[in-house]
Amino acid sequence: LLLSIFTLTPGRREEKRHGAAWRTDGKVLRLNWEGRPPYTVAFEPLSQPHSQVWRDGLLYCCESFASQVTALDLATGARQTLYQRFGFVRGLAFDGDTAYVGVSRVRVKIPLAQRIVGWFQMRNGVCELDARTWKLRRQFPLPGTETYEILVMEGGG
Q1: How far is CA 100 from CA 14, 55, 56, 108, 148, in A?
Q2: Number of other residues whose CB lies within 10 A of the CB of residue 132
């Protein structure tokens, strides 16, 4: 079992969520129920990891604070940024040669230049991407401000 966390820093969320560790000290843990300790760090550092998907021997995840989708090779420690855009990126699913990525509006203060770029992009919704090239095919804006998870259902509809 793999688990993504923002940080192992002790304390309550309210106390640590404004610190650097909350944004950039994310980890993927490999759980070991009978072990001491009950986990090992499988990969670090990550920027608020979300939505892990195991596919073709790689672990794909959204790094919401970095606004990107990343492929992780747990065996070698290699990482590759596949897609980046403005907004909190969370929610990831694959269907054949298509990847779906959720995007939520940014809720933190960011530099003016980034805000200007973000103004012209979708604020909340789902991006459909080519899973081989990671090029955007189309976007589906959604009402509201946050997308958290995407699930592809066989048989659709």
Answers
A1: 31, 14, 17, 24, 12
A2: 9
